[in-house]
Design goal:
By secondary structure, the protein is an alpha/beta fold. Helix content is 34%, strand content 19%. Strands 1-2-3-4-7-8-9-10-11-12 form a ten-stranded mixed β-sheet, with helices on one face. Strands 5-6 form a two-stranded antiparallel ribbon.
């Protein structure tokens, strides 16, 4: 590796994707329908089709008069994403999709089926500007922000896939794919609003089942709390001390561990929701017993019972010198965090063999 990568908060200017129905809120939909000279009830019909029946092609919307379908397709339903590649593992229970947007940008989503839930992990940006050195996505830099519709199309595709294979409904959404969701705040917020809104205004997925992850953009965490959407917040901490976190999560040079935890506490207070702390355990880097003690102490002091730690065995990335901690070190780490009165478990890492696990999404075309 040749020195640290720069942090990038503003996406480079690239062609923006065409406007899509899913980019629009209720007022925007009404305006778009009026622009086409159509009666207002068509807006509700389109929403029913898209969010309720998961149809994005007006030609398949049988309650629309044939004569307006082309017009609606051209104005509101441009094709945004093509599935370039699909790989599965875990006996088909984990499926990674590689998407290509109209400007050629690629990014990924991962659908994971569990006995009690179906979860899709979606991308909020193509690439990522946060430059975490242990993460494959971070090494490629930020290509661009995804639009609200590009985010929602990943959700719709997952729901369609489950339905068409008789695998039940999509129940959980995690913003843990490519990108830092809170660095693409407005578009992600638009997507979250439409994910949790009841049909026909959105997909009707419970806010409790939606997780937004962040490396700790403290002001944006507070802003998200004030939206009162009550989604689950996952803070990727990875180190309890500033000295190490400055190198593992470079945004820490801007917002320190204390700033991120204060913001997380604010989030928990405002929403009443327990915050998840993500901790990728890396052999001989952040897995020392004293760091487990410090993590437990800091979390107990700042968040008390309003926190749960997910220890994630590091997913090796190609060319990286870092590796997961040995199991005994992992068990001892968890034990010590719990000893401080903090709830802590090791997270199931699905999709490791298809490079679909956290920190491995690199959109190799
Ligand atoms: S770990 Fe997350 S925030 Fe860090 S570079 Fe990777 S995708 Fe970005």
């Amino acid at each position: 590796m040749s020195g640290p990568l720069p942090l990038v908060f503003d996406a480079p200017r690239r062609a923006t994707p065409p406007r899509h129905f899913a980019d629009l809120d209720d007022a925007g939909r009404a305006a778009a329908v009026a622009e086409l000279g159509l009666p207002a009830f068509r807006g509700k019909q389109l929403a029913n089709q898209y969010y309720g029946r998961l149809i994005a092609d007006p030609h398949a919307m049988t309650d629309l008069p044939a004569g307006v379908r082309d017009q609606i397709a051209d104005a509101m339903f441009p094709r945004l994403l093509d599935a370039v590649r699909e790989i599965e593992c875990d006996a088909g229970e984990t499926r990674k999709m590689l998407w290509r947007a109209v400007d050629g940008t690629t990014f990924e989503s991962v659908l994971m089926r569990y006995p009690d839930r179906n979860t899709v992990c979606i991308s909020s940006q193509a690439g990522c500007g946060m430059a975490c050195p242990f993460c494959a996505t971070g090494q490629g830099g930020l290509m661009r922000n995804l639009s609200t519709a590009e985010i929602l199309e990943q959700v719709r595709a997952a729901a369609v896939e489950l339905r068409d294979r008789d695998h039940g409904r999509l129940s959980n959404i995690v913003f843990m794919g490519m990108g830092e969701p809170l660095a693409n705040y407005n578009r992600v917020l638009g997507a979250v609003r439409r994910i949790v809104a009841a049909p026909p205004h959105g997909f009707g997925i419970s806010a409790r089942s939606v997780t937004v992850s962040t490396v700790g953009l403290a002001p944006a965490i507070r802003k998200l709390a004030d939206e009162r959407l009550n989604v689950t917040l996952a803070l990727s901490l990875h180190a309890p001390d500033d000295e190490l976190r400055d190198t593992l999560v470079p945004v820490n040079t801007r917002w320190k561990v204390g700033d991120a935890l204060d913001a997380a506490r604010y989030y928990a207070d405002v929403t009443g929701r327990r915050v998840s702390i993500e901790y990728a355990l890396i052999r001989d880097v952040n897995d020392q017993p004293w760091r487990a003690d410090l993590l437990g102490k800091k979390l107990h002091g700042s968040l008390g019972p309003l926190v749960h730690v997910n220890v994630i065995p590091l997913n090796p990335t190609p060319g990286s010198e870092w590796d997961a901690s040995p199991k005994p070190a992992e068990r001892e780490f968890v034990r010590r965090v719990r000893e401080r009165g903090v709830s802590c478990t090791v997270r199931d890492t699905r999709g490791r063999e298809i490079a679909a696990a956290c920190g491995q999404l690199a959109a190799e075309g």
